[in-house]
Amino acid sequence: KVQSQQAPMSSRVPHVLLVSAPLQGHVNPLLVLGRHLASRGLLVTFSTAPHGGLKFGHGDGSTVDFGRGTIRFEHLKGGALWASDDPRYHDAMDVLRHLEETAPPVLAELIRGQSEAGRAVSCVVANAFAPWASRVASGMGVPHAMLWTESCAVLSLFYHYFHSLADFPSREAGPGAMVAVPGLPPLAAGDLPALIHAPEEIMWRQVLIADLRSLRETVTWVLLNTFDELERPTIEALRPHLPVIPVGPLCSGTESHGSGGHDDDDSVAWLDAQPPRSVVFVAFGSLLQISRDEMSELAAGLAATGRPFLLVVRDDNRELLPDDCLAAAAGSNRGKVVAWCEQARVLAHGAVGCFVTHCGWNSTVEALASGVPVVTYPAWADQPTNAKFLADVYGVGVRLPKPMARDALRRCIEEVMGGPEAVAVLARSAKWKAEASAALSTGGSLDKGIQEFVAAIL
Ligand code: UDX
């Protein structure tokens, strides 16, 4: 419920300023973290730099009251930043580059403004991939935490790699070469996060290295979107190196992210009319671009299963979708294609039987928390590692080889929905759903993590 009035302010209540680069996979978990902090009575302000490519319904100056607390939105804005509808800033890399150059003084001004308004910031929580926010907070003497938006396993891999704490295979060693890192199962080079062996000039890699530097030099706490049961050995192995606090799973479940969607998204109503566990849900996050060939194999593979499907094709990929796929979906009412949906609510719907995913960490956590078996199709970043864990460590799905091929897709979907292994896969999915639910309950992993963090701020 969006309210026009300001949240109640008190100088004695700790004030947490949440700052995020405007990337969907980063804004979403930070917003959920904000809800948990506000529901414990903290004053919470959320700040990002919304642009046309971001699904985000909370405008500058608005507040959202979600029943147990209130979050106020005060965005990064000003001459150096962009107009929210400027199409030049729809590309994630341009956004990061531009923010690196322009956001620091704007954020500093925002922090000063809070003090002048009598609500001095007690702590800044900035997302990973916004190292400028850490620098600004530390330069102003404000304690700050980073919310790491990927798995603890991936953080540990980066940490060990960039600090030369384990023997990693060289770029030339090939995808089968193995690496052993404390707290992690043996991993093949092909399962490592793509940025480890990416060319040094790639900007994401440079931002990541800046992040890791700030983790050691300026960050007071590293909050993790994970929970004890999911990654306990990895979290414990990283504790001597970094002040980590698991505060996940940061997924909104049946509550809306409020991240703004398409007004015409009626996915949940459509799912209501489908039989239990019948629907194949396909979504590849907010950034991934797939090729025309992949899209046509995907469409043909879905058709070949004979099962109902809900397919998210973002507007920027829409022209890749074969016309006959759309026509077949519309004609039979067996399939539905949307430009965006409330994914966490879709995954929590009982009609969804399997999730074909690119394995972004938010999608991974949302799938586990919903107990939905997966077919993994990772592309880059942390996705190969998440795919490895989903299939081989958590045991909730199968890996679809690249490039996308219709027969392989159909076989993988059958394997998790109807084949001889499907019952075991579903049982393991249900186990992870129960673990996530325990982590979310009073006294669970999330509760303990948030309490630890709030106590530290206090
Ligand atoms: C990026 C990286 O690509 C990913 O590898 C990293 O782990 C996090 O940052 P993204 O690709 O967008 O994220 O994937 P993901 O982490 O899964 O986040 C997407 C978010 O958008 C999820 O919270 C998902 O629920 C939401 N979403 C996606 C929707 O709400 N509706 C959709 O239709 C699609």
TrEMBL record:
Q: Which Pfam families match?
A: UDPGT (PF00201)
An example Gene Ontology cellular component term from the record? cytoplasm
GO MF annotation: an example: quercetin 7-O-glucosyltransferase activity
What EC numbers are recorded for this enzyme?
Answer: 2.4.1.-
Q: Entry's Gene3D superfamilies?
A: Glycogen Phosphorylase B (3.40.50.2000)
Q: Which UniProt keywords apply?
A: Glycosyltransferase, Transferase
UniProt KW Glycosyltransferase keyword = yes
Q: Does the keyword Glycosyltransferase apply?
A: yes
Report the family membership.
Belongs to the UDP-glycosyltransferase family.
What protein name is recorded for this chain? Glycosyltransferase
- Identify the species of origin: Zea mays (Maize)
